Amino acid sequence: MLGKKVVMFFVIILLGVSLLASAQKGKLLNGKIIVLDPGHGGSESGTTAEGITEKKVNLEVALRLEKLLVGSGATVYLTRKDDRYVSLEERVRLFHKYNPDLILSLHHNAKPYDPAANEVSVYRPSFPTKEAKRFSKLVMQELVKATGNPRGALGPANYYILANSKSLPVVLAEPYYFTFLEHLKLLKKPETWQLEADAYYKAIILFFDESVEVK
Ligand SMILES: [Zn+2]
User: Fold this and answer.
1) Residue 197 C-alpha to ligand 1 middle, in angstroms?
2) Which tens digit of pLDDT belongs to each residue from 178-193?
3) Distance from the CA of 19 to the center of ligand 1, in angstroms?
4) Is the domain covering 27-208 a CATH 3.40.630.40 domain?
5) From ligand 1's centre to the CA of 158, what distance in Å?
6) pTM
7) How far is the centre of ligand 1, averaged over its atoms, from the C-alpha of 89 (Å)?
């Protein structure tokens, strides 16, 4: 009888611990609204090399990131969830409609005239909100850490979606180059898509942690 009681005791303790752990995990991003914007889609492939398109990789990363964010309690909207064309105007309209806490536009770089280019680039609007500024720095930090690629441009850019969303916490990131052969090899692998999603996820968690100071 004693044996049974002891086993029951440990079962209850284990249940309690795992329930607590999952509740805490679920609460990290509760109430947060995040928009993911996988660049290009449909007739617009973005950069293409060796049969792999930028639009596909952007979407693969976004879907993996969506899963992580939803798992932590966030409400996530995607400007596209499959391979379809969405105009830049429509993307901006969706950004404003959802009035989110964060917007992340996912892209990949190309510089055909400089095949050695391999740095991480992260952009925000000129005169960004303080949230866009904070988020852009965290995204750069985590992408550099995860990819091992050198730190590249971090600052304002005049892309349509940024220029028309100045009042919103929007960041556009490009972790790898389609025109750099080592990167192209990696971009074909689901492991790399997951690695990018994990890095963005970490940046988002850090963004909402008010104890994290960003210089
Ligand atoms: Zn792109």
Assistant:
1) 16
2) 999 999 999 999 999 9
3) 41
4) yes
5) 14
6) 0.88
7) 15
